[in-house]
Amino acid sequence: MSNLTTQHFSGSYRQQDVEFLLTPMALEPIRDLAEKERLIQSGQRHYSEMLSPESLPSPAYLALFQSAFAANRLQMARDCLRLAALIAARREGAITLVSLARAGTPVGVILKHLLIQVFQRECSHYSVSIIRDRGIDTNAIRHILTHGHAADSIVFVDGWTGKGVISRELRQTVNDYNAQHGTGIDGGLFVLSDLAGTAACAASSDDYLIPSSILNATVSGLVSRSVLNEMIAPGDFHGCVYYAQFEAHDQSRQFADGLVADAIAIAGSSGVPLAVATDAPAMAARSQAYMAQAQAEYGITDINLIKPGIGEATRVLLRRVPERLIVRDTNAPDVAHLLLLAQEKAIPVTVQPALPYQAVALIRSAVDG
Question: Residues 280, 199: contact at Cβ < 8 Å?
Answer without folding.
Answer: yes
